[in-house]
Automatic annotation (TrEMBL):
Protein name as catalogued: Ketosynthase family 3 (KS3) domain-containing protein
SUPFAM superfamilies, A to Z: Thiolase-like
Domain named Ketosynthase family 3 (KS3): residues: 1-185
Database matches in PROSITE patterns: KS3_1, KS3_2
Domain of life per record: Eukaryota
PANTHER family: FATTY ACID SYNTHASE
A Pfam family annotated for this UniProt entry: ketoacyl-synt
Length: 185
């Protein structure tokens, strides 16, 4: 399995937001993963003598959501979204609408970006796409800056029939918060 998949599987956090994974097993829980590249696939396929075939599925971006669904026995939609820089944003939107429209009772949304090779940043730099200041500023034409992150959102319908959101960021530290989205509906 590629590093993005391993980091995503190992980072999924339920306890801080008051959800027991065992209570979600077998439920109509959907999974959306925003992911836009797998540098590990190239590393796993460099030597034809060592190819086993598993790297083809283990590094496939399309399989990330399916791997989470299978591992945790979630029975709802399972979707990987790749729209480059906006992958996680679209995954958040799709998961939100799926719960809101009754397609699933809970939506787990993940976004992952793991950079393994300096050549990726070098290519973006040569195209003039990276920030000259080294910082990203919203609505500024200075350019982009890469970060490595795994995050999880959990949308669910609460007992009061409002939609609630829990957010967990997982890098070297974990930050979790819960808010009610009833005003957003």
């Amino acid at each position: 399995m590629c590093l993005s998949g391993r980091v995503t599987m190992n980072s999924i956090i339920f306890t801080p937001v008051g959800i027991s994974p065992s209570k979600l097993r077998g439920s109509n829980t959907g999974v959306w993963v925003g992911v836009s590249g797998s540098e590990a696939a190239e590393a796993f396929s460099n030597d034809p003598e060592t190819l086993l075939g598993y790297s083809m599925t283990g590094c496939q971006r399309a399989m990330l959501a399916n791997r989470l669904s299978y591992s945790f026995d979630f029975r709802g939609p399972s979707v990987a979204i790749d729209t480059a820089c906006s992958s996680s944003l679209l995954a958040m939107e799709d998961g939100f609408h799926a719960v809101r429209n009754g397609q699933c009772i809970t939506a787990i949304v993940a976004g992952v970006n793991v950079l393994l090779k300096p050549s990726t940043s070098l290519q973006f730099m040569r195209l003039g796409m990276l920030s000259q200041s080294g910082a990203c500023r919203t609505f500024d034409a200075d350019g982009k800056k890469f970060g490595q992150l795994v995050f999880f959102l959990l949308y669910k319908v609460s007992h009061s029939l409002s939609l609630s959101l829990s957010l967990c960021l997982s890098v070297s530290l974990s930050l979790c918060l819960s808010v009610s989205l009833s005003l957003c509906l």
